[in-house]
Structures are given as structure tokens and as C-alpha cells.
Amino acid sequence: MIGTTKGRVAAAALMAMLLAAGCQKAPATRASGTVDDARLAQAHQDGANWLLVGGGRDEQHYSVLDKINTTNVAELKPAWSADFDTTRGQESEAIVVDGTMYVTTAWSKLYAYNAATGEQLWMFDPKVDGAAGPKGCCDVVNRGPAYYKGKVYVGTYDGRLVAVDAKTGAKVWDINTIPEGERHRSYTITGAPRVVKDKVLIGNAGAEYDVRGFVSAFDAATGKLAWRFYVVPGKPGTKDNAASDEALAKYADKTWFGNWWDKGGGGAPWDAIVYDREMDRIYIGGGNGTPHSHFKRSEGKGDNLFLSSIIAVDANTGKYIWHYQVNPGDSWDFTATQPIMLADLKIGGQVKKVLMQAPKNGFFYVIDRQTGVPISADAYVPGITWASGVDPKTWRPIENPDARYINKPFLSRPSVAGAHNWQPMAFSPKTGLVYIPTSENNWVFQANNPDNDHAQVDMAALQAGMPKPQVYLQAWDPVARKQVWKADASGGRLDLGGGGVLATAGDLVFQGRGELVGELVAMAADTGKVLWRHATPNAIMAAPITYTVNGEQYVAVATGAGGPVIFGSNNPARERQVGRMVAFKIGGTATLPPEPPLAGPAAPPNETFTAAQVEEGKKLYGQCANCHGAMPRNSNIIPDLRRSGVLSSKETWKMVLIDGILTDRGMISFKARGLDEAKAESIRAYVASEARKLQAEQAKGVTPKPVGAAPTVPPAG
Predict the structure, then answer these.
(1) Would you identify the CATH topology of the domain 11-586?
(2) d(CA 608, CA 606)
(3) CATH 2.140.10.10 in the chain, residue ranges
(4) Helix, strand, coil shares of the chain as percentages rounded to 5?
(5) Which of 46, 333, 495, 640 does the annotation list as catalytic?
(6) pTM check: above 0.70
(7) What CATH number is given for 611-699 in this structure?
(8) Residue 437: its H or E element
(9) What is the pLDDT of residues 396-447, one digit of tens each?
(10) Residues 161-197: pLDDT tens digits?
(11) Is 333 annotated in the active site?
């Protein structure tokens, strides 16, 4: 469980930036200094900018700005909006550097905007191969860029790290972060890079499939590899020549059994990588195991370090310092990749330097940053079924004996999506509260499914014996160890607790919501009372940011739903949405685009298929459901096949599924995965049968109700 071992520099004005079309436009604010380590160390106090993911090294998602506050937030109106060129998921947290905003989008594209007007200055496309699309579990998303000494860094979905000139958008360098012998595996990058002491740090995703997780540090100027830390051991007898070698040999090797390396083992650190400037160390959040079942992965034996662990390493060398494992021998996809925040808390009369995390498993952890030993671990959601608590002597979870679903299915709460997923939480030093996007939901795990450890069941029957699913934002007191308030976030996806969170010195908490259409909401930080809301109208999952240009404070957020809908609406009410950046200010005069149009009618073909074809197609459709959604629940991000014009043409259907004519859009050929023309036709038969059901509903006048619609004016009071 626990192991231990030992000024801003003034500069000339920014040069004019180039538009993609070649025209020159100047950013709104020019006065600035070099963004180096000294300036990043003070980023949390720099209200004019949002220089880092999380707003500062502590990643608290807190701003010292208070020009927008509880007395005037009702006057907040749109200042500008700018559309991206994709309808896929948007999860990026923008950064703002001296009047210029940088934000990433789906397919790892990078935009630069005038932060005051929304005017596009340039766009960089890393040209991710569409064939990489199916490698990830949860859409071709990206959570943001990093900025350092005149360069902007972005991790790409196909596993590269790219440095871009901040003034022109021209590529400086481009390197593949995946070791050459591992590039056949399903590695992706969806997280934001972190820049620490002339090094760019990036993790990878893919633990749902066949990867071996690691974090790499590259020279910020050249892209040369500086160090690498593997989260799980490799094949016995092999050596990585990595910073993690000694720690894996000492702590991890003896905790793994069987042939885990065949599928990589998992552990992908796809989000949480946080720098502690006071202790000069980095905290890494380790991912889930591959496959999910501990019994399948490691013969049901061993803790499987460093899965689902928080690992502290030296910022200069990547050498191990300590670890704490949240879920020993994880069997539920309960990752420790959720956001990590650093803070100083007064506990028991003493100020403690802590890190805080609300991972998927439902327990909120306050951990001593010096030693890695927890100070507290408390349930932040009710009704947890997999464990009754965390033992304060060993700090191991007290597991339900049936939780590992070896002999029979297990009804888990939280669900596989977790009580809190990747959406950033926030901490306000003014209130002392942590604001957590929260979901209460259920899932059935069963190990006898050869294709997947997860089994979806009839939700109505499931919920008959369980509390009703809920999504909300809660304020958690990490010192008193209790919930202070919660604010309903229903109308959005049931597998998420709303979008990311921003807390400000104006005594406000901002959060986006929605599944298909959405809203941005401002609440009183002390009570959770909603003081303002505005339709965006796109759904919001990313965290809002705030900054000033020429003395005016703005609140901005990337909009557009993303990822497969695990517990979504049965019938998406609207078409997919173009991703969009939206900014608000007091007295703004912009008008936001309208809501996306209602989804189109069902488009079943005229052919008649046999019952055997439909039944075979239902089984084969499982490989489609990860992106297109399980029938009749369909993701609104990837096209709803029941409404697709391609469904009526056998030849076009074959060209898409077998010949791969849409590979550049992420729809690869499945021929190499054993799909032949007869099987493709069976899938078409099944989708056609579902399209006819939808058509019958539409003929009766059954129109799906728009989900998450929000008023366009603030509520009274």
C-alpha cells in the first residue's frame, strides 16, 4: 500500500500574430514577460492570465479575480463565441497568456484566439491519422495545451507530443512518445501536458485495451527524452533503462502474477500529473488494470502496483519517492487518474501540506505530500457497495467479499464511470471547500463475459433495489470531512456530475452542464444557491477559466459534449453539435448561436432481413457500440446509425465497414478484425430493425424531449 524512500522577466511587446489565412492581427494585450518557471510559480496569483491547467501549480482551479462577484453576476452576458471545425467531444481547458487564448479541440487541433474578441489568430492541425480513432475508449478528445517560453505544447491522439510557435502557429518539433516496439498497441494521448523546469511531461491513455502506462519528460526546447516512469512492470527478464526500474523491482514486480504483460497490464496515467514546486516533485495518478478483472489479469493475486496509485517522483530525474495505492488489485476500473489538487490545510491545529483527490471509487482522500500517508479517506457519496470504508490503520479499503465478481455478478455503486470522473474539481481557499462534480450510479460487473468485464442490465430493474441515480455538484469540507451542500445537475449525463468547476475570489463557483444542449451556471460558493445561468447552448464538460483583458474580467469555456454516453438518454433529441468556445463578461453584447437542430428521422432500408441475420448482427454490433452507442441508447457524438442514409445501401455500407472509405474521419475498416461482407450485412440487418422501431415511435408522434435545456435569462433574484 504505502512505500517510501528517501519573477517575471520584462520583455518587449509580443509580435503580431498570423492568421491562418495569412493576414496579421495583433492580440488584445501586448505587455508581458517570458513565461518561464519563475512566472509559472506565481501563476495562481496572476488573475490577468490563466497560464496553466488548473490556474496554478497547485491545480486548484481557483482565481483571485473578484470583479465578477455575487453582487453583479446577474449582469454576465456573452462577450464572444468561436466555432471549431469538429462535432466531436470538447474537453479542453483553455489557457490565456497576455491577451491570447490557446485551446485544443477534438483530433488534437490547437487554436489561438484574441481573448477579448474571439478573433481567430491561427489554427494548427497535427493531422492525426483517422485510423487512430478507434484506439481510444472515449472519443478523440483533448484536455488542453501548455505554454512555456514562447511555445505551445499539445499531446496528440495518436501518441505524439508537438511544440508549436506561440506567435505563428508553426510547428517547432514533433516526436512520437510511444516506444518503437510498443506502437502496435492502443496508446493514445488525451491529457494536457505539464511543463516543469524546461521539461514537458505527458502521460498516455489506453488502459481499456492493451497498453502499459507511463509518464515521459521531454526537453522543452528540443523534444529529447529526459526520463520515463513506467506505472507497471514489463515482461519478466526485460529491462527498460527507465527512471522507474529500481522502484518496479523493489515494490511492484512481486505484486503481479500470470502473463499480465501480454496485454500490457494497464495503469495508463492519462490525466493527473501535478508539480509540487515546494517539494520539487511530481505526483502521477495511475490508471486501471488491463483487463479490468484482477482474476483475469493477475490470477486474482497481488496488489498490482502501481495500478490505481498516486506516485511521487523527483521532478528532475523521475526517480520514485513514495506511492499510495487507492485500489489494491483494482477490478472495477477505479482509477487514480482523477484530478489531484495541492493545498495547505489546518488539521488538528497544525498546517499540513496535502494533496487531495476524489477518485472514481467514492472515497475522498487527503494525503500528506511529504510522506504519502493518508490523513483521511471518507465516502463522499452514499451507498458504496464495493467497500464499507478505508481502514485508518493500513489505509486499505475494507472490501465487500463479493466485490470481485469471481463467482457471480456484482452490483457496484459507484458505477464503472465512478462517483467522480475526469471533470476538474475546484478548491476555494476563501471557503475552505472542495467542489466536486458527482455522480451516484450503479453497474453490474461479471467475469464470465468473454468480451468485456462489464455487463449492462435493465436499468429499471437495477434501480428497483437501489437508490435513484443522481448527478450534482457538491461542496466538500476536507477538514471537517463532510458534505456542506449539493446542487442538482440533472438534465445532463448520468455518468457525469456535470462539467468541470471554477471557483473565484468573487465568492462564485462556475460549472457547465448538459448532455445535448447545455448551460453555464454560477453559484454562491458558500451555499450552492444558483445566482445566474445562461444557455450556451452546447453541453459543457470542460472546466471554465477566467482572466482579464484591458481591465475587464471574462469567464470562458469550451463547449460540446463528448465521449460515449454510458448512462445517457434513450433517444438523443438533437443532432451533433459543432464544438465552440464561449466567453462571457459583465454587459456583454454578443448573441450565441441557436441550439443544434432536432435529430433527423429514422432511415430504415426497404429490404427484408432474416431473424437469424438480425440476431447475429445484434451480437456483432458490440464492436460498434463503443462509439455509436448501445441500442436503443445512442451517442449523440458519433452518428446515430438508425438515422444514417448509408443504412439503405448495401454497397455503401460495405464500403464503409469493409473498404474503409471513411478512415480519415475515424471510421476504420473492420476487415482486419474479422468482419466480412456477410457479417457486415448482419450488422446492417440489426441496425435496420432498430431503425424501424424508432420509425414506429416517430410515426406515433413520440418526440424525444431535449435534454439539459437551459433558460437564456437569469432566474429571478
Answers:
(1) Methanol Dehydrogenase; Chain A (2.140.10)
(2) 7
(3) 11-586
(4) 15, 30, 55
(5) 333
(6) yes
(7) 1.10.760.10
(8) strand 433-440
(9) 999 999 999 988 889 999 999 999 999 999 999 999 999 999 999 988 888 7
(10) 999 999 999 999 999 999 998 999 999 999 999 999 9
(11) yes
